Amino acid sequence: MDVIIVENAAAVAEHAAARIAARIAEKPNAVLGVATGSSPLGTYEALATRVTAGELDCSAVSAFALDEYVGLPLTHPESYHEVIRTTVTEPLGIDAARVHVPDGGAVDLEAAGADYERRIRDAGGVDLQLLGIGANGHIGFNEPCSSFASRTRVKTLAPQTRADNARFFDGIDDVPLHCITQGLGTILDARELLLVAQGEAKADAVAAMVEGPLASICPASALQLHAQATVIIDRSAASKLRLIDYYEHVQRNKPAVRVAAGV
After folding, report:
1. End-to-end Cα distance, the chain
2. Which residues contact 167 (CB under 8 A, 6 or more apart)?
3. pTM for this structure?
4. Are 228 and 191 contacting, i.e. CB atoms less than 8 angstroms apart?
5. How do residues 229-257 score in pLDDT, each as one tens digit?
6. What are phi and psi of 77, to 5 degrees?
7. Helix (H, G, I), strand (E, B), or coil: what is residue 93?
8. Do 45 and 256 contact (CB within 8 A), yes or no?
């Protein structure tokens, strides 16, 4: 896992956006995994600035959202269909037909999960998955003790997750109890993982993810299993890391990559 520590939330957004923009420049029809919540919003805004300036073209990009609440109308301002439309699809100029969100209104939610897995496979898999992290270590809506092999399915939201998300609703009683989410196994299938986190409230979860044991109590620790996982955090989110000096030493002394001729 590559840990990149920057000064503040704005720098997190710029570093993450630069990495995503570079991937799209290399592959204009890249398949992105997109997250909701507050953590990635700055990254989307930084990408949108590049699109508006004509520096980035996302018209051929496809996107798959991580999750959706069960039971919210698609037009509800906090449904992730609507959140992705307003924060990703329209600002980045992505064709709406190429943007996919799990169906939280399906009559058969198990079948909806299997269909979402099929759509990801049919698209060729996710090239780069953007992630945030919950205060309890969840990624997507994979709450503590989720299986590392899990696929897209229905989950019951933890009380802390509902409390954390109550700020987006009129109160906690309006936060849905259930969701449909990509599983940890689904997320780990992406070719590259990019997690962003800002603020002291995420420091414990970040420390458990990066330096704690590989354990389902911290679902984000699954990133330790991925060969191309990068964590970009500000100093507040990094404040509980025991090896922070080492991570900064590594940042300053990245080895030059040399490729032998013919290899």
Report:
1. 25
2. none
3. 0.94
4. yes
5. 999 999 999 999 999 999 999 999 988 75
6. -60, -20
7. coil
8. no
Half-sphere exposure of 154 (CA within 13 A, CB side): 15
Task: Report d(CA 77, CA 82) in Å as an integer.
Answer: 6
Angle in degrees, CA 154, 156, 162, rounded to 5? 130
CA distance 132 to 134: 7
Structure tokens at 63: 């996107």
- Position of tokens 């939201």? 157
Q: Could you please report the per-residue DSSP string of 112-147?
A: HHHHHHHHHHHTT--SEEEE---TTS-BTTB-TT--
Helix 41-52 / helix 9-26 crossing angle, nearest 10 deg: 50
Q: What is the pLDDT of residues 81-110, one digit of tens each?
A: 999 999 999 999 999 999 999 999 999 999
The b/e string for 179-197 (b: 16+ C-beta within 10 A; e otherwise) is bbbbbbbbbbbbbbbbbbb
- What tokens appear for 131 in the block? 């992630």
| Neighbouring residues of 250: CB distance < 8 A, sequence distance ≥ 6 | 3
